[in-house]
Design a protein that fits this description.
Blueprint: E1 7-12, H1 19-32, E2 41-46, H2 52-61, E3 67-70, H3 87-92, E4 97-100, H4 103-107, H5 113-125, E5 129-134, H6 138-142, H7 146-157, H8 163-166, E6 170-173, H9 188-211, E7 216-218, H10 227-231, E8 238-241, H11 248-268
Parallel strand pairs: 1-2, 1-8, 2-3, 3-4, 4-5, 5-6, 6-7, 7-8
Helix pairs in contact: 1-2, 1-11, 5-7, 7-9
Bound molecules: 2-phosphoglycolic acid.
């Protein structure tokens, strides 16, 4: 089974859940999704650093296949980097995915493509799944340079990993203007067009066999009324949800809504 035969569905809980909140959320989410086939559906949750240790314990207790990720990571293993968290530390607490270059990291905290590239390289080198997030701002979209922006983010962000490491890479397309409380969700046609373009860059970078098998997820104001539209699109391999998936019951509702559509699309392909 290729990586893109699976459906990807997960959430980054940003800075919204305490340890107790995360425990409750994961207990409930793992219980509600326990019957979903783990071999064809990749569920993941990316909570705050401080919750990871307990989060891992909860998932182990529930024998849940939900993968755990970290929202950021320093590329160095150890040293004088006040306020940073290293790959060794994230391994220690059981993170499997490292989210890199989320819009808020880039635009609130000023991270640059070159830093995202160092993080992707380090995450891949430490055996994590790097989840590189890319997306253009509203200004870049309006200036007609969305594709150029995506190409730069991908080419710099992925410049230091090997084809072999790219087999373990996930990418998320999250247009900046679509994310968060004032975000406007991308139309499904626009999202599909950008995913198609991202796919072409991944193939340029890693060749047809590897580039065409890297999952690319859509994120940005996904909700119960628009989720299904994205998943029927041929280049959208999964959904990376914020607010709408922070409630366990809605996480479950959303993923169950898209599974039959994803399966039907795969049958047709
Ligand atoms: P949102 O967040 O779904 O709340 O817009 C998406 C994201 O930031 O990944």
């Amino acid at each position: 089974m290729g990586n893109r035969d699976k459906l990807y569905f997960g959430t980054n809980t940003k800075m919204t859940k305490t340890i107790a909140d995360t425990e409750n959320f994961l207990k409930e989410t793992s219980r509600l999704t326990a019957d979903l086939p783990a071999e064809s559906i990749e569920l993941f949750v990316i909570p705050s650093y401080t919750t990871l240790d307990r989060a891992k314990a909860v998932l182990l207790e529930a024998s849940s296949p939900i993968r755990l990720g970290a929202q950021n990571m320093c590329w160095e293993e150890t040293g004088q980097f006040t306020g940073e968290i290293s790959p060794i530390m994230l391994k220690e607490v059981g993170a499997e995915i490292i989210e890199i270059g989320h819009s808020e990291r880039r635009h609130v905290f000023g991270e640059k493509d070159i830093e995202e590239g160092l993080k992707v390289k380090s995450a891949a080198g430490h055996g994590f799944i790097p989840l590189l997030c890319v997306g253009e701002t509203k200004e870049q979209k309006d200036q007609g340079i969305a594709n150029e922006t995506l190409a730069i983010q991908l080419k710099i962000g992925l410049s230091s990993i090997t084809g072999e490491q790219a087999k373990n890479l996930w990418v998320a397309y999250e247009p900046v203007w679509a994310i968060g409380v004032s975000g406007i969700p991308a139309t499904v046609e626009y999202a599909q067009e950008k995913h198609h373009y991202i796919r072409s860059i991944l193939i340029d970078l890693f060749g047809e066999a590897i580039g065409s098998d890297i999952p690319v997820l859509y994120g940005g104001s996904i909700n119960n009324s628009n989720a299904e539209g994205y998943i029927v699109m041929p280049d959208i391999d999964g959904l990376f949800v914020g607010r709408s998936a922070w409630d366990a019951s809605n996480f479950n509702t959303l993923v169950r809504a898209v599974i039959p559509l994803f399966n039907a699309r795969k049958k047709q392909a």
